[in-house]
Amino acid sequence: MKRIISKCPTCDGTLQISTLTCPDCGTEIKNSFELSAFDKLSAEQGDFLLEFLKSRGNLKDLQANLGISYPTAKKKLDDLLAALDLAGEEAQTEEGEIDMTNLTVNRSSTKASEIIKAKLFDNGGRAIVHTFRGEPRQISISNDGKFLCPQLVPYDFEIFDAIVDLLLRSPGYRAKKGSARTAKLGEPGCEENTVAGTILVYLGVKPGHTGYDAGFLLCAVLEWAGIATNGRGVLSLNNEYRRLL
User: Fold this and answer.
1) Comparing C-alpha atoms, which of 228, 239, 245, 241 is closest to residue 75?
2) Is 8 exposed, middle or buried, given 0-12, 13-18 or 19+ CB atoms closer than 10 A?
3) Could you count the other beta carbons within 10 Å of the beta carbon of residue 186?
4) What is the pLDDT along the chain (245 residues), one digit of tens a residue?
């Protein structure tokens, strides 16, 4: 039996159930039935919820059962709570709604920039991601379509495309994250084939110069979006995302 879908594949509107059928006698009941919050979960979120319940809410057991890190488990739980409208006010550090009426997103695109924008749209314009160390960071989209985080200056979403391009041309679709905190562009640890170096090049930093190291957060966002895995010192492109390309 096919899983219920909650979004219209044509316009992305919310679907409603119009007919219920008894498989034993063939009786049909026609009306307009709303989907529950659980019906609107993605298949991945539904599977995670079952594993969460099997683990009796113990994140440590959940990590072991799924073979994932704490930041990944916490991110998935935050996404699940947001999807069920249970995130709570403590998940937000900004008040007020984000005006996205004049912003557009290409949901058919496989670009990382569009995928991340679409996910932020679906979360009301802001979300919580977790760094490799498990630290929560709020991200959002500005009214003029910029990527925002309280700890960073505004970025164009295309910065994520630059990082993905690096991974696509790297052996094994993985690259060292590097660091621009202590090294200048082109120096050991901040070469152009590292995430840190790629970010600096995108921002227009010249070789021999330095800039702010935003890799700790941008890598976390790529993991939050299901595009890459944020490992210890290494960022890897996910197989699921590669199959979309």
Assistant:
1) 228
2) exposed
3) 16
4) 455 665 566 555 566 666 778 888 878 887 776 667 777 677 788 888 888 898 887 777 788 888 887 667 777 887 888 777 776 544 444 445 677 777 888 989 999 999 999 999 888 888 999 999 888 899 999 888 899 998 788 999 999 999 999 999 999 999 999 999 888 999 999 999 999 999 999 999 999 998 888 999 999 999 999 999 999 999 999 999 999 98
If you compute the radius of gyration of the chain from its CA atoms, what whole number of angstroms results?
A: 20
**Tokens (6 digits) for 216:** 């700790």
Q: Where are the alpha helices (DSSP H) in the chain?
A: 43-54, 59-66, 70-83, 112-122, 158-168, 195-202, 215-224, 239-244
- For 113-132, b/e burial (b = at least 16 CB within 10 A) is bbbbbbbbbbbebbbbbbbb
Residue 14 DSSP code: B
| Under 8 Å between Cβ of 229 and 238 | yes
- Length in residues, the chain: 245
Q: Could you tell me the CA-to-CA distances from 158 to 4, 79, 80, 117, 181 in Å, in that order?
A: 34, 23, 27, 10, 22
